[in-house]
Amino acid sequence: MNREMELLSWIQDWFCSNCNGDWEHNQNFTIETLDNPGWSVFINLEETIMERKPFSRIYLERDENDWVYCTVENKVFKSACGPRNLIEVLSIFKQWCDSTTSSMNQFA
Prior knowledge:
Layout (H helix, E strand, L loop, with lengths): L2 H16 L10 E6 L3 E7 L13 E6 L2 E8 L2 E6 L4 H21 L2
Antiparallel strand pairs: 1-2, 2-5, 3-4, 4-5
Helix pairs in contact: 1-2
C-alpha cells in the first residue's frame, strides 16, 4: 500500500475510533475546498484523546500554491492549505496524533 493510501486508511481508523454513538452525529471532520484555490480541514477534538494536547501552530508559505497553515483553537484542529497540500495537512495531523499516543504509551 502506498503512503497516501496508508494515510487515508489511518484517517478512517481515527474517525471510527472516536465514534461513540454521539460524536459522529456532528460535523466533526470536514474537508472543503477554498476559492484561492486550496483546501480547509476541520477536525473537532472534543471528546477525543487529542482535545487537551498542545499543538504548535504551523505556518509554511513556499509560494502562492504551496502553503500550509495548521492550528488548534477551541478544541478544533483547523487547517488551510494550497491545492496540492491536502496530504501534507493530513500527515501533520497524523504525526501529531502519533506523537501524543507514543508519549502516552511510554507511561502506561
